[in-house]
User: What shape does this take?
Amino acid sequence: MHCPYCGHDNIQGIELCEQCGADLAGLDIPEAGDGLGGRLLTDRIADLDLAPAPVLGPDATVAEALDLMATQRHGCVLVVEDGVLCGIFTERDVLSRVVLAGRDATETPLSAVMTPTPVRLEADDPPAFAIHSMVSRGLRHLPVVAGAELLGFVSVRNLLRYIRRDVIG
Assistant: This one.
């Protein structure tokens, strides 16, 4: 739905405009249809096959993160301090904030190159929220939480597997 105030294209059913914060509640209530379109609005992110969270602390080095990403075959590491998600470090960060910046991966802490306070999804959010967030913000990985508890993350790959069930069977 387009925000009547700033024109930003928001996902149907969202209560606040992601661009200007305007109250959109009740302006465009989505209706869940049949098939994939309905499931995108009624299923929960927690019901997807979430990837387990590769986790490191903010003082871990980029080299440690790269080793963990390679070992677990994931494109990100979630950065947690005192049990609280404080950042995300992705393949894109490796290229833009480490390699192109000429940083030493064995000396650089994640806190210096991670994306702080990442966009996150709640376990009860519908898959449509994940798709919208990824498309509108250019993201490929989104941490999933239930309150303060980190459950894992959803990636483009997870969403494609989810969609494939309806498209291919």
Q: What stands out?
A: The chain has a mean pLDDT of 88. The chain has six helices and seven strands. The chain has two domains: 1-30, 32-169. The longest helix spans residues 156-167.
